[in-house]
Amino acid sequence: MRILHTSDWHLGRSFHREGMLSHQATYIDHLIELIRTERIDLVVLAGDVYDRALPPVDAVALADDAFGRLAASRAHSVITSGNHDSAQRLGFASRLIDSAGVFIRADATAVGRPIELSDAHGPIAVYPVPYLDPESVREPWGLPVRSHEAALSEAMSRVHTDLGSRPGTRSIVVAHAFVAGAAPSESERDISVGGVSIVPTATFHGCDYVALGHLHGRQTLTESIRYSGSPLAYSFSEADHLKGSWLIDLGATGVASAEFIAAPVPRPLARIRGELAHVLADPGLTQHETSWVQVTLTDPVRQAGAMDALRRRFAHTLVLNFEASEPTTPHPRAISAVKSDHDITLDFVASIRGQAASPAESALLQAACDGCTEDSDLDYSVPVGIG
């Protein structure tokens, strides 16, 4: 059986306020084409279909289009919910949708009941394990502690109980969790419960393949336990990630081969560091002029209008950080026993920038201070060290 393992679509997510829906649609086009060209038998989507529990209408429309195209393809599809999804919304009408060969499982009560498939080597049981909130399942499942390990251990106990009644059946588990040995990036939502979020790899022992979701970087924990990662980068910490999907060939005794197939990159990410003049002039940065860019400027003094200057060369600069190569020395100002609000704002500007505010900036700050007082003619002062 040929399996395509994907996860963490996060439909409806934005990237630093830039819409991603057209890029997500490009990935879905790519996935549907892979099913045809690679003759995929099973697509598994390991959670976080949507970016939030109440997704925007256009994200729902894209998911509807994706599910419809999956149903019309040659492959079966198994989809679980992630911690970003609403289990109730994603799982709506799942029994009806089953008839189209798209199996959506978002209800914890169904854990341990597989989707039954087969290939030339015999039967295969696919066990979807949706994201399990430890608090939600603790009482109904009688868990001894409130943790992800306890919840996943109980889920896998149910899987093994069912699998034990199916001699000679190979097993695929599709789960959404943070498994030990994996490395997170900055774009995943924290799922820790009292600091306990990590699940040991041993939890999934005895399974022929475990398709994981939640972490956004592709990772191989064992030959049979893998994260596909998200199909697109969702933070600049993922700028060096190769995004895509795992193509798994399941043989008679387990994983026969595994290949990572890269996804299209509609717009690459770049992280640039240096002084403003160098960044604007360096010919080696030409390749990033159409990228989404994060810039960290290291000038000793913050340059006015830096973002505008950067965007004239790098039109898609989204994040600007300042990290002076040498500590700035605040511009000296006279110390008085009492400081006005205006003086405090001027001190702040001088401390952050390393030079005094210009006359125009000083006037603007004065106007802002006046606008925040009860009487616009007054500029309240406070003794130094108070407030």
Topology of this structure?
Elements lengths: L1 E5 L7 E2 L2 E2 L1 H17 L4 E5 L10 H16 L3 E5 L6 H4 L3 H5 L3 E4 L9 E5 L2 E8 L4 H8 L6 H17 L5 E7 L1 E2 L18 E2 L9 E5 L5 E4 L2 E3 L16 E8 L2 E9 L6 E6 L1 H6 L10 E6 L8 H8 L3 E6 L15 E3 H13 L5 H13 L9 E3 L4
Parallel strand pairs: 1-4, 4-5, 5-6, 8-9, 9-12, 10-11, 12-14, 17-18, 18-19
Antiparallel strand pairs: 1-15, 2-3, 7-8, 13-14, 15-16, 20-21
Helix pairs in contact: 1-2, 5-6, 9-10
Describe this structure in words.
This protein is an alpha/beta fold and 387 residues long. It folds into 3 domains: 2-262, Metallo-dependent phosphatases (Purple Acid Phosphatase, chain A, domain 2), CATH 3.60.21.10; 269-322; 338-383, no CATH class. It has helices at 21-37, 57-72, 87-90, 94-98, 134-141, 148-164, 276-281, 306-313, 341-353, 359-371; strands spanning 2-6, 14-15, 18-19, 42-46, 76-80, 102-105, 115-119, 122-129, 170-176, 178-179, 198-199, 209-213, 219-222, 225-227, 244-251, 254-262, 269-274, 292-297, 317-322, 338-340, 381-383. Helix 1 packs parallel to helix 2 and helix 9 (341-353) crosses helix 10 (359-371). It has 10 helices and 21 strands. The longest helix is centred in the first third of the chain and has 17 residues, at 21-37. It is elongated, with a radius of gyration of 27 Å. The model has no long low-confidence stretch (mean pLDDT 90). Strand 18, helix 8 (306-313) and strand 19 form a beta-alpha-beta unit. The strands form 6 sheets. It has a 6-stranded mixed β-sheet. Strands 7-8-9-12-14-13 form a 6-stranded mixed β-sheet, covered by helices on one side. It starts with a strand and ends with a strand.
